[in-house]
Design a protein that fits this description.
The chain is an alpha+beta fold. The chain has one domain. Helix content is about 15%, strand content about 45%. It contains one helix and three strands, in the order βαββ. It has a three-stranded antiparallel sheet, with helices on one face. It is elongated, with a radius of gyration of 15 Å.
């Protein structure tokens, strides 16, 4: 599961972290609001255990 959160939104970042999400990427200046640039933080939660993909062929 992936969440895209405005980087200054500490409450949302903390909430997602408390639910097990981890930061996977940050993108600077992806948009503007009220005359200021906004950065975007992506967080990810692994929903199940990953296994090796099946061999092709």
């Amino acid at each position: 599961m992936v969440a895209g959160i405005e980087s200054q939104n500490q409450a949302s970042l903390h909430l997602h972290q408390s639910l097990g999400f981890v930061v996977t990427a940050q993108m600077p200046q992806v948009g503007t609001k009220f005359g200021r640039w906004l950065d975007l933080t992506f967080m990810q939660l692994q929903l199940d255990e990953r296994t090796e993909p099946d061999a092709i062929g």
